[in-house]
Amino acid sequence: MADSENQKFCLQEVLDSFKLCLSPEKEIYIEHYVSGWRGLVKLLNSLGSLFGFISKDAVSKTQILMNFLKSENGPHYATVQSMVKFELDNELVDVDKKGIYPQSGCRTLLRLHRALRWLQLFLERLRTSKEDDKTSVMCRDAYNESLAQHHPWLIRKSAGMAFYSLPVRPAFFEVMNAGTPEQVVDVLGKAVPLLCEVYQITEELYQKHNLLDLP
Ligand code: 1PX
């Protein structure tokens, strides 16, 4: 595991990465999108071994995208928009569902994009929750409403078990490392609309190119 993934989580840092990932023309920079996810993985890593399989998958997906960025085709992977154009123009995506490109940038980012919807729903629940609301229930409900429909039974069960072990709300707010509960709620109030915008831009782009069901 890279050193950066062992460092302490900071909600503001994650928010900054997702802010930086939007260009003035509303293109999404993959480098900052990936840093946002890497920041979130730090929190996941502090939650214990039951979350290890989730963290491993998130790291592996961000690594695939970083490898594209560092490759000779790197400039084509600068933004989600340029990646989609490059992979479609060069037939590097399984648009006809053959599974020849199981690690294309488009299908890899699609997995994170679906997870972003979960994150958005979870953080909105956290933001509007009361002190004794259960983090595990908020997480589970957000998951069932989003990512779960893309996961097989075994993953759903393992994720469900991990959710039970989530810290209670006050302890979870501590882990988020953004100050007092009021300050956490304040940062969440800025984070949710931003994640929502990044999600919406990607969703529309993928919809336009018929990429939302990539295998
Ligand atoms: C401020 C608080 C934020 C909490 C941060 C938590 C960061 C979570 C990062 C989760 C990233 C998950 C990416 C999952 C991508 C995915 O759907 N992968 C599956 C499909 O990939 P494939 O290549 O096979 O087509 C893959 O099978 C998934 C494996 C792992 C299970 C994913 C379960 C995700 C549950 C949602 C995250 C719950 C974390 C709770 C922490 C509060």
UniProtKB/TrEMBL annotation:
In the UniProt record, does the keyword tRNA-binding occur?
A: no
Report the domain of life of the source organism. Eukaryota
Per UniProt, subcellular location reads as: Cell membrane; Cytoplasm, Cytosol; Endosome membrane; Golgi apparatus, trans-Golgi network membrane
State the Pfam families in the record: GLTP (PF08718)
Per the record, membrane topology reads: Peripheral membrane protein
GO biological process terms, alphabetically, are: negative regulation of interleukin-1 beta production
Keyword annotations for this protein, in alphabetical order, are: Cell membrane, Cytoplasm, Endosome, Golgi apparatus, Lipid transport, Lipid-binding, Membrane, Nucleus, Transport
**Which reaction equation describes what this protein catalyses?**
N-(hexadecanoyl)-sphing-4-enine-1-phosphate(in) = N-(hexadecanoyl)-sphing-4-enine-1-phosphate(out); N-(9Z-octadecenoyl)-sphing-4-enine-1-phosphate(in) = N-(9Z-octadecenoyl)-sphing-4-enine-1-phosphate(out)
**Under which name does UniProt file this protein?**
Ceramide-1-phosphate transfer protein
